[in-house]
Design a protein that fits this description.
The protein has about 450 residues and is α/β, with parallel strands linked by helices. It contains 10 helices and 24 strands. A 5-stranded parallel β-sheet has the order 7-4-2-11-22, covered by helices on one side. Strands 13-20-14-15-16 form a 5-stranded parallel β-sheet. Strands 8-9-10 form a 3-stranded antiparallel β-sheet. Helix 3 packs parallel to helix 9 and helix 5 packs parallel to helix 6. It binds flavin-adenine dinucleotide. The site of flavin-adenine dinucleotide has 36 residues, from helix 3, helix 4, helix 9 and strand 23.
């Protein structure tokens, strides 16, 4: 191993906590010693290894891991498996559903980001066999591995809401920004109709774990502001249904959102979980501690329960007990993201069974940790790289304003720009980050450059 490579390894091994960093890496990273961009990695000598590495899922996390590994390894066989050809920039779905960006803003292709030397298998994995160290695709192809990185994201469980039909999104006041770019746009049309006519607008979040827990709140704020701008807010009731007793898991953020909702006349109902919907009659049914409650609506943004994809959920990989067992999240150590029972398996992104971190911003900080542990295993050293739960949510509170909410496992706020961008202030600069700077940074992350 050359001097540069040794230096890079040593820097990586020293990484633990956070220093100054920024949402998706806009600022000076606390983990800077660990993350080598491809050009830095090229300067460092690559680690020679014949290892077979399979990455399950080519979304935000899978592509970013592939880019880092391709830059750091020489001779390894890296296989990325995912049948989905388009790539969706999901943090932009809210912007599409609010009429701020066109659908094209969030759609590209997986192949655009495929690193040299990485093989893409356009199939879905149907079976994970950790005892046999192999995965089997739906087409029956077997892929043995020395290391597996599970980056399959999560599954939207619309079927768990009785009467829900995703084909109807965009009609009769039925919206759902999570489904896809096309349905986010259809939701924008439904919201526009609501803004014209007024009535009852229903907003909610599911009782399950979910990606970007701030998105349902952002969309409520945007709807409120949009109606004000159209001059029809007086004709509308806006009601937010929280799944439990809080609006956000971080207490100080809950309190801030609660105050803003109150200020803006957004009614909040706690411990309400959507159980059923009758799109024809525009009726939503919520489970509450007092039993089921029917609520009529003129517009609704359905956010479905979320869980691990079936292939993962039906495998030996999920937690077998505790909070994450039922939804099938991977049983990994929350700091190393390494599987607790299968040492050659890691999870990155939404599928990881950890207390926080289902955002693209979290992926940015999880990827170098997993990569360092994997490289360490190949090089016969220990890695002390640790993910601290960093999660970020630029919470839009109106058109032109947002709050940059960043926190970790311990619910500490960890601002990227202390003294410059206050986390709980509604600022134009944060809006600018969300609407213009974030996407290029995300793309850089996919290419392993951020
Ligand atoms: C409406 C919305 C708003 C959001 N807002 C923000 C935000 O403001 N900020 C932020 O940081 N994040 C936000 N996010 C969250 C962010 O997009 C996700 O956390 C991120 O994309 C997670 O990356 P991932 O790779 O884990 O999953 P994904 O990017 O979803 O990729 C998973 C991939 O795995 C593939 N896959 C699934 N099953 C299999 C299988 N069996 N075999 C092979 N491949 C499989 C899928 O086809 C997919 O390509 C938002 C998401 C949504 C939907």
């Amino acid at each position: 191993m050359g001097k540069n490579a040794r230096r890079a390894m040593a820097a990586g091994a020293g990484m633990t906590g956070r220093g100054r960093r920024a949402f998706l890496g806009l600022g000076v990273a606390g983990a800077a010693g660990l993350i080598l961009s491809p050009s830095q990695a090229a300067a460092a000598e690559k680690l020679k290894s014949p290892a077979r590495i399979v990455i399950a899922g080519a979304g935000a996390a899978g592509l970013a891991v592939a880019a880092h590994l391709a830059a750091r390894l020489d001779g390894a066989r890296i296989t990325l498996i995912d049948a989905r050809r388009p790539h969706f920039y999901q943090p932009g779905f809210t912007l599409v559903a609010a009429g701020i960006k066109p659908t094209a803003y969030v759609v590209s292709t997986t192949r655009e980001y495929l690193p040299d030397g990485v093989e893409l298998v356009e199939e879905m994995i149907a079976e994970f066999d950790p005892e046999g160290s192999k995965v089997v695709t739906a087409d029956g192809h077997v892929h043995p591995y020395d290391f597996l990185i599970v980056a399959t994201g999560l599954q939207l469980d619309y079927a768990a809401i009785a009467g829900m039909d995703t084909e109807l999104i965009g009609r009769d006041g039925l919206g759902s920004i999570y489904h896809s770019p096309a349905k986010a746009e259809a939701t924008w049309r439904a919201l526009s109709g609501f803004a014209e006519r007024g009535g009852v607008g229903i907003f909610l979040r599911p009782g399950s774990e979910m990606k970007c827990a701030g998105a349902p709140l952002k969309y409520t704020f945007l709807a409120d502001d949009y109606l004000r701008r159209r001059g029809t807010r007086g004709k509308a009731e806006i009601i937010y249904h929280a799944n439990n007793k809080v609006l956000f898991s971080v207490p100080i953020v809950h309190e801030k959102v609660r105050m803003l909702f109150e200020e803006r006349g957004i009614e909040t109902r706690y411990q309400h979980q959507l159980a059923a919907i009758d799109p024809g009659r525009r009726l939503a049914v919520f489970n509450t501690p007092e039993g089921q409650q029917e609520v009529g609506y003129d517009f609704i943004n359905v956010v479905p329960p979320m869980r691990a994809p079936d292939a993962v959920r039906n495998s030996p990989l999920p937690w077998r007990e505790g909070a994450w067992a039922k939804e099938g999240w991977l049983e990994v150590d929350k700091h190393s993201l390494r599987h607790q029972r299968f040492a050659n398996i890691f999870a990155v992104g939404d599928v990881a069974g950890v207390p926080k971190g289902k955002t693209a911003a979290s992926v940015k900080w999880q990827v170098p940790v997993v990569v360092d542990h994997l490289l360490a295993a190949l090089a016969g050293r220990e890695s002390s790289a640790a993910y601290d739960g960093y999660t970020s949510c630029p919470m839009i509170t109106r058109y032109g304003r947002a709050m940059l909410v960043e926190f970790d496992y311990r619910d500490n706020l960890c601002p990227s720009f202390p003294g410059l961008i206050a986390p709980l202030e509604e600022l134009w600069i944060t809006w600018l980050i969300k609407t213009t700077l974030l996407k290029p940074t995300y793309i850089s992350m996919l290419r392993g450059r951020a």
